[in-house]
Amino acid sequence: xxxILADDERLALDVLERLLGVHGDVDIVGLYTDPALLLEExxxxxxxxxxxxxxxxxxxxxxxxxxxxSRCNRLEIVFVTAYAHYAIEAFDLNAIDYLxxxxxxxxxxxxxxxxxxxxxxFSDSVAxxxxxxxxxxLYVRSFGGFEVLxxxxxxxxxxTQKTRELMAYLWFFGGQPMDKVQxxxxxxxxxxxxxxxxxxxxxVYQLRRSLSSAGFPNGVQYxxxxxxxxxxxxxxxxxxxxxxxxxxxxxxxxxxxLELYRGEFLQEGYPWLGHEQFRYNLDIYRAxxxxxxxxxxxxxxxxxxxxxxxxxxxxxxxATASIVIRTLGEQGRRRALxxxxxxxxxxxxxxxxxxPSKECVTLYEKYMVSx
Length: 371
Prior knowledge:
The protein is of the alpha/beta class and 371 residues long. It is built from 15 helices and 13 strands. It is 54% helix and 13% strand. The strands form 4 sheets. The chain has a 5-stranded parallel sheet, sandwiched between helices. Strands 9-8-13 form a 3-stranded mixed sheet.
């Protein structure tokens, strides 16, 4: 593997060079104390791996790493740091992409082994060719919790929760370039600016690794201090939104909603969502309520599922209760209606200390006394 090293301390470079020298398959093609020179010679050196110090005077190794990745996404980067708090907050302890100074030979050997495995996996994927790649895409599940599925249907793994949140953030904004200062403020609001920026860079690095493992090494783009996703994507939001926009739902539409709606939109409740989280849920609620108001389904299983879902989405709403009461009442299902009403009234009293509205009571009594 072709390796370059960068550190603002020449002694640190010499030490790392000696430690790497015992590994026969490591070819050190460049040592740099000047990041500008590294960038100038990067294309010529064509490295497989870059060992970068995190703090190099006025230059951040994390920023340098992002610049290198923007030029060559297949590059493997190992961050080297004397500051444990950066590594601990940015990576889990089993990560292969950081080393804590002073570098221990055993720890370095573990990193080399993992790098060899990663480089071999990349070579194998190239050898297999890209047949069918144009049709491959990731699938995002956002209702009931954020999850991303690979083209083979396997959930992507995230090294940290912040890596997962960053993916959700960039996806939520539709692939448009997002200013990195804005991202720092959204994801790390309790951190000082410099620390937040450092954490963002390490999180971006981890996200790139996760997407690369799924076959999308160029998934995160960076230019002019902005990040964005550049990945073919499908999502449950797209499918549900197209259904919710219809003036009238079919039974097949409702089946699809019941299949895809697994809970609230991004139920993690990320602060940067604002009111958008509720808007998506409301669109689904209105579509299903409208379906029932237009006559609903003759299929009792479908009807029951829709009523249950509406009540789960908004259990203390008079509007929801009225929909359920009216639907059960029109079907003449008095026992089910009585059971629901008692449960609704008890829950309302217990949870928020109020009784059903006069309109709900009147509607309920209408169906209970009718022939």
